Amino acid sequence: MGPEVVLSWLISRLLTQCSFIIQSEISTIYNSTGELHKLKSVLTAILAVLSDAEGKQLKNSAINKWLSEIRDVAYDAQDVLDEYQFEILTRRVLRQNSSWASEMVRRLFTSRNPLLFRRKMGRLVKQIVNRLDEIARLRSRYNLVTSDNLEEIYNVQSQTSSFIEQSDVIGRDKDRDFIIETLISEKFTSKDVSVLPIIGMGGIGKTTLAQLVFNDNRVETLFDIRIWVSVGDNFDVMKICRCILESVTQKACLFSQLDLFQGKIRETLRGKRCFLVLDDVWNEDVFKWEGFRSVFTSVANGSIILVTTQSMLVGSVAGTIDTYQLAPLSEHDCWLIFKRRAFHTFGGEEPQNLVLIGKEIVRKCVGFPLACKALGALMGTKREEREWTDMLESEIWELQKDSILNSLKISYHHLPTHLKRCFAFCALFPKGHQINKDMLIHLWMANGFLPEMGRSLEEIGRNIFNELVCRSFFQDVKKIEKWYDCEVTVSFKMHDMMVNLARSISMEECYYLGEDGWVPDSKIRHLGVNLYSDLAHVNGFSHIRKLRSLVLINHSSNQIPHQLMNALCMWKCLRSLDLSHSIPPNKDIPLYHLKHLRYLNLSYMNIGTVPESVSHLLHLQTLNLNHCEALRELPKDMKNLGDLRHLYLTGCTNLRKMPVKMGQLRQLRTLTKFVVCPESGCSTLSELRDLKLEGILHLGNLQNLKSVADAKASLDLKENIEGLYFEWVLDEEDILDVNEELFEALKPPKTLKMLGIKGYCGKLLPTWLLNDWSFFRNLTEMSLSCWPRVEFLPCFEEFPLLKVLEIHEMKKVKKIGDKDHGGSGSFPSLCYLKLTKMASLVELFGLEKRPHMAQPFKLKIKNCPQLTIIPVIPTVREVEIENCSNIDPSEGFVSCMICLEKLVLSECDSVVLLLEREKGDANMPVKELTIKRCTKRMFNRPPQFGLWRSFVSLSYLSFESCGGLVFLPDIVMKQLQFLKYLIIFCCLNLIGSSENDGLQLQYLTSLEKLSIIECNRLLDFPENAMRHLSSLKFIELVGLREISYIPELPITLTDAVISGCTKIYSLPDNMHQIKSLARLQIMDLPNLISLPEEMLYLTGLEKLIVINCRNLEKVPKGLGKSVGLKCLRIKDCPMLEGETRSAQGETIVSSCRFPP
Fold it and tell me: Which residues form the Disease resistance protein winged helix domain (predicted)?
């Protein structure tokens, strides 16, 4: 960051440090008072002219250089004064310990000898004073005016900023409609994959336009799958493939080879029409593009890749459709964006004098919506005409050439100083990076960027963060709750142009080392290193001597390069060090020399112990050990870390004890986990009594609590704790030894928002949970699990803010709620109820009478075999009932759910049969219906269809292992005109739509995917059952042992799998007409004799697999030379002999003979 961002703050902090040290005993002991007074005097003289210098340095580069020199010396001065403060902390720690006298004697014979230390520090302070004196004399050369006001220029605004909704997108409707019309035009729906690039300058709205298209209803209807990937500078094909696969499957993907990724993507996307957005692409390598596009050979025709980029070359290399050049917004649209933010604080007024000035400011934004948004937010804080005129006439417009950066620099220039330095520090992070809010605030704290204003540093940091969000410097703020992991985090991103802005103003101090590999300047103070990059060309970092922050950008446990690890040993000025997710070259992490360190992040590292040297980092404020799963214990002398404010231990599953005297950490605010240990030499829970903790606290191994005295941690007084998670870990034979009074002593605060209790082995509940519900008036989430002895639970329905209630594995609980404990059925805020593994549960009092719930609701009940009555909730949107065989629902159970969109029924025959008896509205909103393991006869005679007549909106229907499904009547099939997916799996008794007819599929005119697997008794399909299914793209017929032929298929088909149909002797007659067919798999057809000659007409066929067709003796002439065929595999077909390859030579086909 530029010197003007840092100096006033830094010098003010130095003056405060000087005063503190002068007043301490250290200055007397080491005879440093005189030199410190001289330092304070010269700093005061420089501070007096800073205001004038910072204003003039915009035009005078000599003044800018002069300020830079002062900044460098000031940083060195801070390091020297930190040495004094470290000595103060050391002496405080020694006094607290019994070894005070012996340690002072020992130090006489070390480098910490008071005489040697005094000489060293005196020399260093004198050098600093001389350097500053020499620089300060130059101030007369620049005619700098002295300011009479020497107060700190910190001006933290008193008002708090709130997260406001982003303004509606303005001026892009025509762009959106043009692109969507292009996507749905016929000339592209017949192609396999088309690439449409959107090109425009940074900040012009490319990403916003892509988001509009992506979320448009027309696009959602047209495509089976929509995927969004933010690419950035590095076009890493493996990383992009990982994002695509995880987006589609919603599961983490752990593949380490690109071939595995690509194969899985082809399999997952086969036959689906896909819409993929690649946002912010810079790759201009045509070979990389071709390799990437080959991943999408299995998708359906009409699939689209939408690319946003600033590079015309990227558009020409990647695009298969004419690029769309995104133009700047009109002045009118820019004005609408600007005024919405600029005048929102004016009470609806738009003063005409300010409107005229504002329109001139907007004209200088040259059509960039991001600039209009940022400047509008800035001007919303200014009401005087002079302030608006000053903005319009600002010299920054003329000094910079880049139009968009001009606009953003104006907003930056008018930030308060403390916001400037906090924003500029973010230049450490790569574009598109998800930045953790709390991590960033702790980094700001570690580097002293937060002003001390009589409130906690964390609160000041949060206010600064909110203000930067409000001013559009930060965006995409997301709250991520991992309640199962006792973790709630807030993350955000910065727009690429905001990253550019941060880098442009902080290039002298902050640097991100990414793909370009340019080695930063020797004066760099804050460094971010992307471990995904190839750092082999970086010779070393030895030229950087005074680094203060090192942040490794890494998410997959990459090894720290040796040159970086070697440099770490010499960076003695580090204030913040982030090695998370990384692997050191050797197990030792050098920390002993980092006496200035305030922030240490070792999260997600495979370490069993934390180096004991951490106990000597007396300035340490934040220690993050989250998800160090191998971690067994903490440094035994952690009690010495008197400045420690945040200790993160989430996910440390093997942590077994806490170090002794944790109660001495009086500054501690965050402690995410505390493990109770019965051994001596460990902290008991009572050590937390006087700590002012906040956030989420996980109390583990509570079975080790031995007395009520040990359990008294005064949790009920800790009103800043938002979440508590109690956990007992006991074997079955130990459960009788639980002292229930101990749980009574763990009374939580009334401000609690999240409560989790796992493994409680007592029989009686504490009174604060059973009766005193005033403790839970703020509770929003509650998770109760694994209580082996409790037989009764209250209904919890009176908790006014409760949104999520999960109850799991309560073996003996027979009822929840009773007449004496609730029963009104209010649940005013409940959105999600989950009951699982409740082996004895019979009744749910207060829920069986259709409780009123105003919120959209999701209900899951699994493995409750004794439950007879389940709640009926009109506002429910999703219902999953599994293995609840005794449920006896009353009439109207399903039909009253007027908002129901998804219904999953597994092993609960009574509810399945209820669908046939109930009558409902003509059009129920159900879109997804899954029925599993229904054993009772469905659609029995005389058939009743009940709600099946109302499922006209159904788009997904699945039957799995339903022995009771014998017929799927045509009356039901006729109602499913909008069905897109029909899956029938292992329904062994299914015959068809009636006793004499196969499935009447011809009514499913919207069907896109048909999968029928292992239905052994299924009869032949009617002759015209499939030919007119004009939307069908994918068909899978597997294990249908009774069908003897396959009817003609629709010509829209792209993928077909025919396997295990043992009576089939030929393929469909119209196979040669399906020009869109791209992939065909034929397996385990013992009676298939030949492949028709007409298959050569399938010019779109890319992949043909034929396996285990023992009697296949004839294939089309020249099949192996078909130009379009990319993959040909024929295996275990003994009647064919020889060997060949596809035209591209990609796949060897062995043991086959092909006609010439």
Answer: 428-502
